[in-house]
Amino acid sequence: MAFTILLSSACQPTAEVDWGLSLISSTMTRDANGVVLDAGIDLRFSPEMREALDRGVPIHLSVTTRVSRHHRLAARLERSLRYGLEIRHLPMLGHYQLSDLQTGEQTTFPRLWMLLDALATPRRFETGMAADEWPGRDWQVQIRADVDRSRLPSPMRLPAWFSPQWRLGSGWHSWLVKADEDVVS
């Protein structure tokens, strides 16, 4: 009987969700200094995330860039870099704060939609790949963003790992670059 109930509850149609996280306007640029990626982040809070933010829990976003040597069907990871962003609600002011954890830059916004607009504006992410590494090899360059659940307060971590409302992340955006060609997305 219990098995039937569990089975039938698992077959329920999934409701449409209007929360998520994705990368927008992602581009790769090659110049004399090396390879950089530009991307904006489209974040739509889930109800649980919004409640946590409004109660003073900072939301951490992690942006990861990867550079791999490309060999026909597989790629070997050469380097990976992580960038952190933090979103806070400042309840005494009623404002929201966006912090870049690498540069220490903090920007305060009077409304959450203004912070989300700023987050969607493309920003630069380094890949760690120098210009002199490019020639003579095929490369795969990737970027993704996700909510860093490991940075939540201890009592919230376990429930957040099992809640779909905290599993927000973009897929990998990839560029395959041949040894002597321009960018192929």
Structure description:
The chain is α+β, with helices and mostly antiparallel strands and 185 residues long. The chain has one domain. It has 4 helices and 10 strands. The chain has a 7-stranded antiparallel beta sheet with strand order 6-5-4-3-8-9-10. Strands 1-2-7 form a 3-stranded antiparallel beta sheet, covered by helices on one side. A hairpin with a 5-residue loop joins strand 9 (173-177) and strand 10 (183-184). The radius of gyration is 20 Å and the shape is elongated. The protein starts with a helix and ends with a strand. Mean pLDDT is 83; it is low at 1-11.
Quaternary class? single chain
What is the average of the pLDDT values? 83
Number of domains: 1
Kindly report the spatial arrangement of strands forming the biggest sheet.
6-5-4-3-8-9-10
Biggest β-sheet strands, sense, barrel: 7 strands, antiparallel
Shape: elongated
Structure classification: alpha+beta
